[in-house]
Input
Amino acid sequence: MRRANQLVGKTLGELAKHIKPGVNTLQLDKIADEFIRDHGAIPTFKGFPNPYGAPFPASICTSVNDAVVHGVPNKETVLKDGDIISIDCGTLLDGFNGDSAYTFCVGEVSEEVKKLLRTTREALYLGIENAVAGRHLGDIGSAVQDHCEKEGYGVVRELTGHGIGREMHEDPQVPNYGRRGNGVMLKAGMCIAIEPMITMGDRNIYMMPDRRTICTRDGKPAAHFEHTIAIRQGKAEILSSFDEIENI
Output
């Protein structure tokens, strides 16, 4: 699990070098696909089943501005100065899955948007602080929800984090909202993906006609950060990494 997730972090770090105005999201997908395969892994998202339509056609999800998650890479979506792009990436390595996401700034981004990204990232780590053996899923969700809602942001309800291991999506679901002490009790050795999906406006979302991309109803930006972690006694172990991104 650790090796698969470290590869996801390295892939996101490689993509960070290419995120700039004028680049289209299909170019980013090709870079990610080659990088993952060159490191002996399989891009998990490619061909991933879709209950609403055809399987996912790409190796990463590229969600720009008001797209919350599951954006499909394409030639038409060209990044421009001031955009934000969430890239969600998964790898299958030696039978185990890695999963992580990061929202990048493209060129010069407004302070208002930077605050959204900063708050969402902070919420991820607050959730992780509460992901320890003996606590409950509601403790994670409550930490994320409280931090984001006090800043006036929306917390998406319809989409959640998840268990992860030999399959990309396993039980339990990991909501970004909840009440402390509620939900499944966390046990040492469990692996889960925590992924706050936070909107600048209200929390309402809709699915685009492509039957994949999820966007905010009010058209305001959304941020998405994700780590895969292992539950431990006292402190969670973060299996994925943002170091390759943030050390560039």
Residues 111-129 form the longest helix (19 residues).
